[in-house]
Structures are given as C-alpha cells and as structure tokens.
Amino acid sequence: MMNSRIAAIDVGNDSLKGIFGKMDAEVNIPNVIARDIEDRPIIGIEELDTQDPLDGIHIRVHSPALKDNNAIYRVGNLATKSNNSTELDPGSSKSEEDQTLVMLFASIALDAARNDLFKKNNNVIEANYTLGTGLPLREVKEGKDVGYRSRLLGSVHQVEFLVTPRYQGIKVNIKFDEVKVYPEGFAAFINLVMDNNANIINKDLIDKRILIQDIGGLSTDIAVIKDRKVDDDKAQGFNLGVSESLELIREEIRSRHGIELDSRRDVVEIITKKNDRNHIMVKGSRTSVHDIVDRIMLELAKKQYRHLRNMWQKNSQTEICYFIGGGSSVLKEYIKTLNNNLDGYNIDFFEDEKESIWMMANAYYKLIADFSRKNEKQQQVQKDEQKLAKTK
C-alpha cells in the first residue's frame, strides 16, 4: 500500500489551519472562496514563479462530494480581491457547505504539490492521506459527522491547479485511507491534556470539572468535561460567533469613513494588532475606530457572557472555564472586564494568540497521529503473525 501522509485540518470560519506529515509542514489560508467563470488573466508580476502559491490559489475541483462539481475557484488571499467572494454565513452548517470541502481539498493539494512524497505521472500526483478534522459540537450531536466522513472516504477528489504560481498545470488526485471527524470541544480538551505522543501533560486538569467555551466565526460551542470525557448531553452549541459583529464593524467603517476592507480577516487585524490597535488609515491619516469596535464587541461579549453564566448555573461544580478559538482572542479584554465587574468566575484565556488559534489543528494532529501509530502497530502484528503461520 502506498504511504499515507497525515493531515490534521481545522476549517475555521476565519481561516483554515492545517498540519501535515510529521509536523513538517503547516498552512494557514483565509476561509474565502470566489467562483470563477473562466481562467483568470495573468497580470504582470503573477507570471513570476517566485510568487508564493498561497497568494494565487486558482483551482478546478472535481469531487462527487461537492454539490457543485467541476467548478473553478479562487481561494484564500486571491479570493479576498474578488468582488464575488464568499465567506461562510451565520446559521450555515460547516459539514454541508461546498466551501468547507473546497478549502480542505485545496490545502491538501498544496501540501501534495510541494512535496515529492507521492507518485507523479505526467503532472498528475496520486496522493494518499489519513485525515483528522472536526465539526462543531452541534453538528456532531445532529449526526452530521457520519455523512461528512462518508462523502470524503471512498472517492477520489481531484484538484487541478490553473493559474497558480509554481503549480500551474499540476493535478492532484486525493484519496483518504481514513477520516476521523472529532467534535471540536472534545478536541480542545485533548489538546490541553495531551502532548504529541499521546502522553498526559496536564495532570492537574485531567480530573477537574471544566468548561471549554470555543468562540468561532459562526458558532460557539461550550463543552462540559467531567470524568475525563465530554458530557454530550450537557454540552451545547449556539449559532453565535464573531462573524456577524465583524461584518457590522466593516459596514460601519465603510459608511462612516468610506473605507472598503477586503474581508473579516482585515477587521480582525485592526482589532488585534499590537501597534495602532483599532486605527485605520483614512486618506493617509491615522484615524481611530475605537468607538465603533468597542460598542459592537461589547454587545457580543455580553451575549457570550450570558451563555457562560447559564452553563455555569447548570453545571455548578465547574472549577474553571477556558476560552479558546479565534473569537476568544478578539473578545478577550471585553469578557475579562465583564467578568471582573460581574460574577468573577474562574476563567482563563490563552495569552499566546497563536496557541489559541491553532488549538484545534494541534488537537486533531495529536488524535490522528495517535490513531495512525496504533494502526501501524496493529498492521505490523498481523504481518508478523502471517509470517509465523507460513513458517509453521
């Protein structure tokens, strides 16, 4: 059997984070796509093969898993420059959107194209992957993970690079040997207590009763952990993320200052950057948008805090709540202020923003790598037993 490469992929509402192989490659792509009717024209600098492929992902995707098969897309940074780009809408299900799969296939095809690990014939790469990914708790509770997994397994998914720097003309046939779909809250817990070799690293935490509030772009999951596992009955998912608020900020900046921001990602950068936070350039002069950001974000933080309060009341023996996810890093200061002024719960954030944002991808990596190791061991045992049987 051809070697299978590990892919751990978190298709976040803001961006896709992927970790590949033996953690030897990673990718971060804005979760934005734009449909293309025809091959896009190549303009000047884009002809250079020195350009980063990540800035020019232009692909045709062929897969029976897609509702809209054989379509051409601009993906990530390139899509943000299009006037018909789409980001996932509030209320949509991650497992049922073509956009989730287009992002997933694009990231894997990029990894396959930049490695010489797989067989390549006439610019066609045959790529085998073992995939670990996840879905919001709400979708797993509704059983949507089963259909999502089966759409990925058992088919060949082809990504053809069109006008993409370095990879133009390459086709990648993706096959999955195994696909594991984890609930996002459980994955976060695994990441807190386990290292990359599946050893327990956080003994204090393992037997505590904890909440994990994962604030994403479109949804919020609150996982309830006790006795070392997620209490599925008590865990809850809400259709409340930061995307709508980011969109409101973007709208208000447009109407008040006449400034057009490409995507929600641009709004996040304005809110979280270290220097000149909550400032934009208007006609070359530095302008504060603090009042817009504070008003809209505080409103969202209050709603998130209400969810925390309700969950804590239902699980009164909770010892700590961890806030994770891209939304948490944006709302951190607002939630802390509310908590200090109101109930004073024992809450914690990850000071390292990268750690919080990459938490899901890291967790899927730990889980799928552990599965892969055990699987290889099992196969080796079977081979050894067969050899032994032949010698008898």
Folded structure, characterized:
This protein starts with a strand and ends with a helix. The model has no long low-confidence stretch (mean pLDDT 88). It has 392 residues and is α+β, with helices and mostly antiparallel strands. Strands 1, 2, 3, 4, 5, 6, 7, 8, 9 and 10 form a ten-stranded mixed β-sheet that branches. Strands 11, 12, 13, 14, 17 and 18 form a six-stranded mixed β-sheet that branches. Strands 15-16 form a two-stranded antiparallel sheet. Helix content is 39%, strand content 26%. It has three domains: 5-186 and 360-381, ATPase, nucleotide binding domain (Nucleotidyltransferase, domain 5, 2-Layer Sandwich), CATH 3.30.420; 199-241 and 293-357, Nucleotidyltransferase, domain 5; 244-289, no CATH class. The chain has helices at residues 77-80, 98-113, 137-141, 144-152, 184-193, 203-206, 243-257, 264-272, 290-314, 326-341, 353-357, 359-391; strands at 5-11, 15-20, 25-30, 33-36, 57-62, 71-75, 119-121, 124-135, 157-161, 171-183, 210-215, 220-226, 229-230, 236-238, 279-282, 285-288, 320-324, 347-349. It is built from twelve helices and 18 strands. Strand 1 and strand 2 form a beta hairpin.
